[in-house]
C-alpha cells in the first residue's frame, strides 16, 4: 500500500522536530489507519484489518514516476470502515393462505460489508413459535441473495401470523440493527361466498318499455370468483351475466328488462348470484318490485281566483292535474302567461297530493298592456302522455 512518505514533518531523535522522507514516515501513517479501524472493530483479526485497508484504499493510476512501475493503492484514512455487515432487507409472501397450503416465503439478504461472507438465515413463525427453516449461502461483498422457504401451514393456527427472518451475525459484525425483517400473513379458512345485496328498478314502469335494472353483488368469500348473476321476472329468466369479482370486492351488474307481454300491476324482479360450493346460499338472491302501468294522458285544467284584476293586483293561477279521474301528484307543471303586448312570463312547479300546482302573478297593465291575458299550463310525468290547457283573465286600469 502507498502512504505519505516525502517531506513529512515529525518528531526528531533527541528532541525537537524535523522533516524527513522514506518508509519510516509512510509506515506510521498505515499503522495509525490500522489503529482507527481497530477502534471501530475491536474483534477484528489482523487479516481483517489488512483487508479493510486494501479495500478502502484509492487507485493510483495517476502516479507516473513510481520507480518499480507497480501502482500500489493509496492509503485512505477518510474511508469509513465497513467490514462485515449482513442485512435482512425484505421478507415477502402472499397476504393470506388457507390451512394446509404451502406458502413460499422469500427472504432477501444483502452483504453491505467489504468482505465476502456466508449468510445463515432462519425463518420463524413468531405467532406459533415455530422455526420454519434455516438456510445458508455465500454472499460476495456488496452482493445480495434471495433465500426461498416453504411454509407448510397444515399445523399452523387460524390466526394473523408474523413471519420473521434473522440472518446470524458473522465474526466482526457490529451493526446488528438490520439483521432481521418480517412480514404478516393471514391464515384463514377459505370459503366461496357471494351475495346479492340489492336490486334497483324504477317505479312505475310503462308496460311494453325496456327498463334498466341494477343488481349489486358482493364477493364476501376468500377466492376471486366468476359469478353467474341471473335476473328473472314472471316470465322466467331475463338474462345472465358473469362478472369476475375479487375476494372482498363488489360489482354492480346492469340488465335491460323488456316488459313486453307482462301483466299490468305489481311485478317482482329477482336477482340470483351463484358460484360452485357456495358456503352460504341464504344471501344469494334479492327481489325488487315495481308497477307496470299503461300510458295515459294527463288531464289539466287551469283556473284563476278572479276573472278580472285591477293593474297591480296579484292573480292566483291554479293548474289541476288528473289521470282523467284521480289527482296526479308530482307531475311537472310549466306555466306560461302571454300578455296583450306580446310579453311572455313563465314558471314551474310540481303538483301536490291534490293534483294542484299553484302560481302567483302580479299584474302590471302599464308595462304589459291592458286587456286579455292567456295562462297556459303544460303537465308531464313519466308513464303519462303530456297534457296542456289554457285559460284567460283580464287586467284593467
Give an overview in words.
- This protein is mainly beta and 397 residues long.
- 8% of the residues lie in helices and 50% in strands.
- The chain has three helices and 30 strands.
- The strands form nine sheets. The protein has a five-stranded mixed β-sheet with strand order 4-10-9-6-7, with no helix packed on it. The protein has a five-stranded mixed β-sheet with strand order 12-20-19-15-16, with no helix packed on it. Strands 23-30-28-25-26 form a five-stranded mixed β-sheet, with no helix packed on it.
- Helix 1 (23-40) packs across helix 2 (46-56).
- The longest helix is centred in the first third of the chain and has 18 residues, at 23-40.
- The N and C termini lie far apart (119 Å).
- 26% of the residues are buried.
Question: In terms of topology, how is this protein built?
Answer:
Elements: E1 8-11, E2 17-20, H1 23-40, H2 46-56, E3 86-92, E4 96-97, E5 102-111, E6 117-125, E7 130-139, E8 144-152, E9 160-167, E10 180-187, E11 194-201, E12 205-206, E13 210-219, E14 225-226, E15 228-233, E16 236-241, E17 244-245, E18 250-258, E19 265-274, E20 285-293, E21 296-297, E22 299-304, E23 308-310, E24 314-322, E25 332-338, E26 344-350, E27 356-362, H3 365-368, E28 371-380, E29 384-385, E30 387-396
Parallel strand pairs: 4-10, 12-20, 21-29, 23-30
Antiparallel strand pairs: 1-2, 3-5, 5-8, 6-7, 6-9, 9-10, 11-13, 13-18, 14-17, 15-16, 15-19, 19-20, 22-24, 24-27, 25-26, 25-28, 28-30
Give structural attributes.
397 residues, mainly beta, 3 helices, elongated
Amino acid at each position: 500500500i502507498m502512504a505519505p512518505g516525502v517531506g513529512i514533518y515529525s518528531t526528531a531523535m533527541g528532541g525537537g522536530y524535523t522533516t524527513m522522507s522514506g518508509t519510516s514516515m509512510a509506515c506510521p501513517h498505515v499503522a495509525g489507519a490500522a489503529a482507527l479501524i481497530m477502534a471501530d472493530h475491536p474483534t477484528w483479526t489482523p487479516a481483517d484489518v489488512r483487508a479493510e485497508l486494501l479495500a478502502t484504499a484509492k487507485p493510483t493510476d495517476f502516479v507516473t514516476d513510481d520507480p518499480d512501475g507497480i501502482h500500489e493503492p493509496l492509503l485512505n484514512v477518510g474511508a469509513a470502515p465497513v467490514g462485515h455487515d449482513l442485512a435482512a432487507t425484505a421478507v415477502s409472501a402472499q397476504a393470506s393462505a388457507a390451512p394446509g397450503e404451502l406458502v413460499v416465503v422469500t427472504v432477501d439478504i444483502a452483504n453491505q460489508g467489504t468482505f465476502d461472507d456466508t449468510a445463515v438465515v432462519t425463518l420463524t413463525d413468531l405467532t406459533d413459535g415455530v422455526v420454519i427453516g434455516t438456510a445458508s449461502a455465500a454472499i460476495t461483498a456488496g452482493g445480495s441473495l434471495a433465500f426461498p422457504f416453504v411454509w407448510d401451514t397444515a399445523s399452523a393456527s387460524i390466526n394473523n401470523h408474523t413471519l420473521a427472518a434473522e440472518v446470524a451475525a458473522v465474526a466482526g459484525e457490529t451493526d446488528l440493527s438490520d439483521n432481521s425483517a418480517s412480514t404478516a400473513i393471514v391464515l384463514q379458512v377459505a370459503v366461496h361466498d357471494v351475495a346479492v345485496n340489492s336490486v334497483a328498478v324504477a317505479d312505475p314502469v310503462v308496460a311494453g318499455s325496456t327498463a334498466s335494472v341494477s343488481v349489486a353483488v358482493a364477493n364476501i368469500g376468500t377466492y376471486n370468483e366468476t359469478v353467474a348473476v341471473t335476473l328473472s321476472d314472471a316470465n322466467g329468466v331475463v338474462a345472465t351475466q358473469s362478472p369476475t369479482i375479487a375476494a372482498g370486492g363488489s360489482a354492480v351488474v346492469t340488465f335491460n328488462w323488456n316488459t313486453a307481454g307482462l301483466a299490468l300491476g305489481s311485478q317482482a324482479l329477482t336477482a340470483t348470484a351463484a358460484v360452485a360450493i357456495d358456503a352460504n346460499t341464504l344471501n344469494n338472491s334479492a327481489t325488487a318490485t315495481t308497477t307496470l302501468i299503461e300510458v295515459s294522458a294527463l288531464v289539466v285544467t287551469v283556473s284563476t281566483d278572479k276573472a278580472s284584476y285591477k293593474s297591480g293586483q296579484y292573480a292566483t293561477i291554479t293548474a289541476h292535474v288528473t289521470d282523467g279521474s284521480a289527482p296526479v301528484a308530482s307531475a311537472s307543471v310549466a306555466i306560461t302567461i302571454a300578455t296583450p303586448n306580446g310579453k311572455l312570463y313563465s314558471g314551474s312547479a310540481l303538483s301536490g297530493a291534490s293534483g294542484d300546482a299553484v302560481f302567483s302573478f302580479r299584474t302590471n297593465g302599464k308595462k304589459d298592456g291592458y286587456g286579455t291575458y292567456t295562462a297556459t299550463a303544460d303537465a308531464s310525468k313519466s308513464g303519462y302522455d303530456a297534457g296542456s290547457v289554457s285559460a284567460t283573465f283580464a287586467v284593467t286600469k
